[in-house]
Amino acid sequence: MAKAKVKKVVLAYSGGLDTSVIIPWLKENYDGCEVIAACVDIGQGDEVAPVHDKALKSGASKAYVEDLTQEFLEDYVWPTLKAQAVYEGKYLLGTSFARPLIAKRLVEIAKEEGADAIAHGATGKGNDQVRFELTIKALAPNLTIIAPWREWELGARTEEIEYAKKHGIPVAEENKTYSMDRNIWHLSHEGSDLEDPWNEPKNEMFLISKAPEDAPDKPEYVTVDFEKGIPVAVNGEKLGAVELLTKLNEIGARNGVGITDICENRLVGMKSRGVYENPGGAILYYAHRELEYLCLDRATYHYKEGVAIRFGELVYDGMWFCQLREALQAFVDSTQESVTGTVRLKLYKGNIISAGSKSPYSLYSQEFVTFERDEVYDQSDATGFINLFGLPLKVRALMQEKAGKK
Asked: Does the keyword Cytoplasm apply (predicted)?
């Protein structure tokens, strides 16, 4: 396939070996095009510090390094939390909803810089290539997309290192056993011994959380306040999004909560095994669900459970900017109008345990549900209700008797 004619490319840049090698590779294979590196900081920690200078040393003409952690939480994580969206019952979508934000910023930079292409370092085996490219197609359909992993012949890490040295790119000695992705929401681990699903994750692998057996022998209580489904306070202290999640990450990590091990179905057709550290996220999902138990009626809650599954699939598949996700978000936001209150949880050696919830919009009524004598519920009303509710069963049974089937 003939290569597209491009003069200026915006590259999603992390500072790692892959994306550093991509800079000279692009210039070499796309007629000396200009490469602008763009790194979006959404809580990667110390990884971001050397990125700017390394991008320039690797041949980029310009490097953007921007902290969008607050936008990430408020515009991507909180909406997904409100939906209670989880992929395949376990995965809290830590990488999935990060990619649309990164790709959106790449598109904005490409337009500002007059670039005609965007490049990314996602492999041809994973989901991220889809998430990046669907976002670009949704926001800038005329931009060319370059995915070097689907084009180049650098099939092994040793080949990449050799290529880097040949082009004068600084190569750091990396001691990483696993392929990892980190942001303020989670840390994922893949590869190495985890490729055999029979292998238990090693405790020394955990970089954020304590292993549950190493957590304190005494439980820790934490309260989380929500306003319209959005977390706003921890232990009674009002906090912004970044500070709030940072605090919950610390609390959850020392108690060993939020470690998830899953063989998930990738969008591209294969199963992959991942272990995720999600201490703050696990607390928030548990607390939010507890409050919904209190504040949503039966029909709304049950319908929303189905919406959550579909919402999670859309996020996982990179369809953040599709019409269905936006429409489902409108439904979710409507349900959250009454999801305001406080949830208390007990954390103990990897476990999250309910310890109380309250809300000014609680639908729970002790007057109606009490086992003691009450003046508000006439138990004899249940007779008529059961007769009507069970009428189809009765009519079917009578028909079967008449037809000799019973």
From this structure: yes
User: Is there a binding annotation on residue 17?
Assistant: yes
CB atoms within 10 A of CB 265: 13
* Sheet strand arrangement including 220-227: 237-238, 230-234, 220-227, 341-348, 351-358
Residue 123 annotated as binding site = yes
When pLDDT is averaged across residues 11-22 and rounded to a whole number, the result is 92
Instruction: Say if 8-68+98-167 and 179-296+338-358 have the same CATH topology.
Output: no
Determine the pLDDT at residue 120: 97
Q: Within a 10 A sphere around the Cβ of 309, how many other Cβ atoms?
A: 16
pLDDT digits (tens, 9 = 90+) for 171-205: 766 657 898 999 999 999 999 999 999 999 999 99
Tell me whether residue 128 is one of the annotated catalytic residues. Answer: yes
pLDDT digit string (tens) for 266-296?
999 999 999 999 999 999 999 999 999 999 9
Q: Is the domain 179-296+338-358 a CATH 3.40.109.10 member?
A: no
* All structural domains of the chain with their residue ranges: 8-68+98-167, 179-296+338-358
CATH fold of 8-68+98-167 reads Rossmann fold (3.40.50)
Does the active-site annotation cover 18? Answer: yes
* Residue 179 designated active-site: yes
Does 122 carry a binding-site annotation?
no
